[in-house]
Design brief:
Blueprint: H1 22-25, E1 43-46, H2 48-51, H3 62-73, E2 76-77, H4 78-85, H5 89-101, E3 105-108, H6 119-131
Antiparallel strand pairs: 1-2, 1-3
Length: 132
Amino acid sequence: MTGDGATDDRWFDDAAGPVVRPYAMTRGRTRSAAEDKLDLIAVVVADRVGTGGSVADQTLSPEHIDIVELSRDTPQSVAELAAELDLPVGVVRVLIGDLLHAALVRVSRPVPPAELPDERILREVINGLRAL
């Protein structure tokens, strides 16, 4: 309340809500060149050689830096990064695409189930090893 009885409409910290719209973070882009690599379970790892301990690139947004910092010590999936940063997955994909292009992160994808060896073959190998 102010002295004249009117309420104070200023916001502080988290009460302000999202101040920057997602499209502003990605400069209006909705896709990245690396989109085919960036499904929800793709694992992002900060490239220690490229970052050198701290990210000082002035062209990176705070969200880019947060992604590098979060994935520096522990590999994080795209879904985990989106949840941790409280950003839409599409925005995080575009930001990770930027980091890939700058060689600040690497992305690995889990082996799809169709490419895993058949369970029957693995059991035969185990049985063969036991027979030795």
